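Worked example 3 (structure in, sequence out).
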């Protein structure tokens, strides 16, 4: 009986506390950060640039500057370092064709004739075909690395090997035409 009276006292105390609260105020929140996260603006801070003269891990620095002289030097001196055995070359050309279809065909066309979808829709004008240009593997790689005129640079999208694969495929397109 004594325990029963204690239970009734505690029950009345709890009802008194619950009944006396103001129903207009918010309840107490346990761990409010779980319900309302602090707001962060995505582009509030500019992204960090790598320090000057740093090189991406696993790659060698590109020694030709983004100038006309650098383009001419790359055109004359730069050669494809990928393997030249037949089986590996076929694989590189296959990979180059896939990458060309993703990155280049929109403007340059599937055949390299400068009549891609964006040119046909007149979004970009003046895209040359590969047959009308004096191209070498070095000049193609240089343009992929830095871009030229309205063509953007693809050094950030394509690895060194992928750039060479695309250059191989562009040379093959140029020879076919």
């Amino acid at each position: 009986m004594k325990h029963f009276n204690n239970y009734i006292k505690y029950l009345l105390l709890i009802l008194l506390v619950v009944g006396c609260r103001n129903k207009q105020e918010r309840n107490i929140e346990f761990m409010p950060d779980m319900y309302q996260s602090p707001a962060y603006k995505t582009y509030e801070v500019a992204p960090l640039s790598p320090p000057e003269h740093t090189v991406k891990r696993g790659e060698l620095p590109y020694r030709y500057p983004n100038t006309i002289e650098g383009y001419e030097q790359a055109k004359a001196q730069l050669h494809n370092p990928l393997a030249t055995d037949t089986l590996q070359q076929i694989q590189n050309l296959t990979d180059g064709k896939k990458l060309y279809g993703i990155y280049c065909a929109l403007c340059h066309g599937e055949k390299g004739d400068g009549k891609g979808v964006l040119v046909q829709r007149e979004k970009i004008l003046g895209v040359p075909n590969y047959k009308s240009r004096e191209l070498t593997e070095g000049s193609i790689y240089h343009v992929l690395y830095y871009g030229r005129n309205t063509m953007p640079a693809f050094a950030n999208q394509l690895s060194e090997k992928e750039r060479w694969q695309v250059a191989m495929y562009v040379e093959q397109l140029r020879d076919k035409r």
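Notes: The mean pLDDT is 83. The domain at 68-175 is CATH 1.10.760.10 (Cytochrome Bc1 Complex; Chain D, domain 2).
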